[in-house]
Amino acid sequence: MRVSMATSAGRAGQPNEDFFGAVPGAAVLLDGAGIPGSGSICSHGVAWYTHRLGGVLLGKLSRADGRDLAAILATAIDETAADHRGTCDITNPSSPQATVLVVRAHRGSLEHLLLADSFLVLDDQASDGPQVITDEREVTARRICSAPLDGVARGTPEYDRIRDSCAEALRARRNQPGGYWLAKDDPQAAYEAVTGSRPLQDVSSVALLSNGASRIVSPYGLTDWPGVLHLLAADGPADVVHRVRQAEACAGPNAPVPDDATVAHWTHLPRSEDDDL
C-alpha cells in the first residue's frame, strides 16, 4: 500500500478544514463545512471537528474487525459529538460538520462510503475509463435552493437578501429525508451514505479529492477525470492542487471563492487478504 497526498488551505491565515489520513487497508478524507460566525455555537471550530472525527474513524478502521463502514462512521460521529456536547450547541444547524469519504480494502473488495460532495476516482481496469463516485444530493439541493438568485445582480442589497434566504433554505434540507446528509451530531446520517464496492483485482489505483480539489475538472475544466489520474501518476497530488490554485488566481470576480483542496492517491492495492498492505 502506497499513499501520497497534498493539501492546501483555501485562505491564507485560516485553518485548513480538510482532513486526510490512512491506515493499512483504508483511507479517510473529510471536508469540513465552515459556517461564518459559528464561534459562539462551537468554541472548537470546524478544523477541530474534522480532525477529531477523522482520527476516530482511522482508529476504528485500524482494528480491521470487518464492521460495516456505515456502522463504523455512526459510532465515530456519536463519539465525536459526545466530545463537545457538554460545551457546544451541536444541534444548531451551523455547528461543525463535514463531508466524509472512506475507502477500504476488505475481503477481496474495495469498499467505499461517501457523504456529500467529495470525489472518489477508481482506476478500474474492468471498465472503459475511471469510475467516478460522489454523493450528488448536496449539489442538487444547493442548485434548487439557489435558483432564486438567477439573474440577480451580485453586490446589490436584493442579491444579499435572496442569498441569505437561499442559505437558510439549504440548511433546512441538511440531514433531512429528501435533502442531503453530512457528518454532524446525528449518527443516523451514516446510514444515509452512498456505499458500494468493486473487486480489488479490477482496481489499480484510487484517488480521493475534496470538493476544492475537484475544481480542476469542474468548473475550471483544466482536465477530465482520466486526465486527473494521469497527472497523479506522473507528478503526484501536489501538481493537481497547484493547477487548481493557478486557475483560481486567473479566474474572474464571479469565480468560486478559493476552498481548501486535498488530493490523495492510493496505489499498490492488495490483491488478497495475504498481501502486504
Mind explaining what this structure looks like?
This protein is an alpha+beta fold and 277 residues long. The chain has helices at residues 46-61, 69-84, 137-146, 157-173, 211-214, 225-235, 237-250, and strands at 2-8, 18-23, 26-33, 97-106, 109-115, 119-124, 131-134, 194-199, 203-209, 261-267. The longest helix is centred in the middle third of the chain and has 17 residues, at 157-173. 38% of the residues are buried. Helices cover 32% and strands 25% of the residues. The radius of gyration is 19 Å and the shape is globular. The protein contains seven helices and ten strands. The strands form two sheets. The chain has a five-stranded antiparallel sheet. Strands 2-3-4-5-8 form a five-stranded antiparallel sheet, covered by helices on one side. The protein has two domains: 2-8 and 15-126 and 182-267, 4-Layer Sandwich (Phosphatase 2c, domain 1); 136-180. α1 (46-61) packs across α2 and α6 (225-235) packs across α7.
